[in-house]
Amino acid sequence: QVQLVESGGGLAQPGGSLGLSCGASGIFFRINTMGWYRQAPGKQRELVATITSGGITHYADSVKGRFTISRDNAKNTVYLQMNSLKPEDTAVYYCDAGVTLLGGGGRTYDAWGQGTQVTVSS
Asked: Residue 19 pLDDT > 80, yes or no?
């Protein structure tokens, strides 16, 4: 089984910066597209950014120009650099990865981290 663990969440001031990371652990697997999602209280989970294994990125309009997603395939890790933070960025941020198991089953599934809290407040 592949597990995803997020780190880097915390408290930031408006206009400040925060960096998140998410690493996938396990053996005999391949990571496909990875992404970040967020969910604020009382709201549904929304996409923040995605990045393919080849480095193609996609961003939600609300974070374009402020957030940057990147990945290190050798480390099976995805990053989210958040700059110019706004109070409305406050949410639990979740890491997502498409996983292909390189075994007899060869199944593909969506793996999720447990989430990390990001709070933007003065």
From this structure: yes
